[in-house]
Write a structure and sequence with these properties.
Blueprint lengths: L25 H23 L3 H15 L11 E3 L4 H13 L4 E3 L4 H14 L3 H14 L4 H13 L3 H18 L2 H21 L3 H14 L4 H18 L4
Parallel strand pairs: 1-2
Helix pairs in contact: 1-2, 2-4, 4-5, 5-6, 6-7, 6-8, 7-8, 8-9, 8-10, 9-10
């Protein structure tokens, strides 16, 4: 299944990118394939036709209901969704260390929660968006794309410290577990999220380092360039402020 790869350069929200996942038995695979296909149709409504409510009502919520997504968040074994073998192994090892039963499955549920959250945020429902994104993160705690969207919600809520913590985890997750074709975009998005949080916390030198690191990885990162210019403006204002 082709994945959507476009990332928004602004560093706030990324284009939804339904994930690939491990193979499963044929019957389950067919159902999952159909659900993933419906999510892609919902993404088209959301991103190209700008109809977030219609995408939720006709695609994201029905997939969540039909796939039994809420049940995956309950009880044992703990259910995880991973995009790479390294991410799968990480979840299983962490569960074993805590003496917990865990499985990594191919399911549309994490993407469905993520896409619903993305659409709800587009509709201005920050509380609902956070609840949906947190469900996605519960199924995939080291998915850098989900974490970055949760960090963005903390930005919307003006929780700069919380956002910094989440974007820091997103950066580590992107470097360690993101698919190769998504890694650069997810690392730089996390770095920009960290930098923006640090600006709002008044830690300009640290913010500058994050944006410069993003530019080292992607010299065409216009958002990082703009934020560096903004940091210089803030420094100029501080230098000329009355005593």
């Amino acid at each position: 299944m082709a994945a959507l790869t476009l990332l928004v350069l602004g560093g706030c929200a990324s284009t939804p990118r339904p994930a690939e996942a491990p193979a499963v038995p044929a019957g389950q695979a067919a159902a999952a394939d159909e659900h993933f296909a419906r999510l892609h149709r919902g993404v088209d409504l959301l991103m190209r036709r700008k109809l977030p409510r219609k995408a939720i009502d006709e695609y994201f919520d029905p997939v969540i209901a039909e796939a039994g997504c809420e049940r995956l968040l309950e009880g044992e074994p703990r259910t995880y969704v991973a995009r790479t073998p390294a991410e799968s192994v990480f979840y299983l090892v962490q569960a074993a260390r805590q003496d917990l039963k865990a499985v990594v499955v191919r399911t549309p549920c994490a993407d469905a929660f993520y896409l619903k959250g993305y659409a709800l945020l587009d509709l201005g429902d920050v509380e609902g968006a956070r609840a949906a994104i947190e469900r996605a993160v519960a199924l995939a705690p080291r998915n850098a794309q989900y974490l970055a969207e949760l960090g963005h919600i903390h930005h919307v809520e003006r929780d700069w410290e919380g956002a910094l913590t989440i974007f820091t985890l997103a950066e580590d997750s992107a470097r360690s577990f993101s698919p190769e074709d998504a890694r650069l975009g997810e690392v730089t998005r996390a770095l920009r999220g960290m930098g923006f949080s640090l600006i709002e916390l008044g830690r300009l030198n640290e913010a500058e380092l994050r944006f410069r690191e993003s530019l080292q990885l992607d010299p065409d990162d216009e958002a990082a360039q703009q934020e560096l210019a903004y940091i210089e403006q803030l420094r100029e204002q501080a230098a000329h402020a009355p005593e």
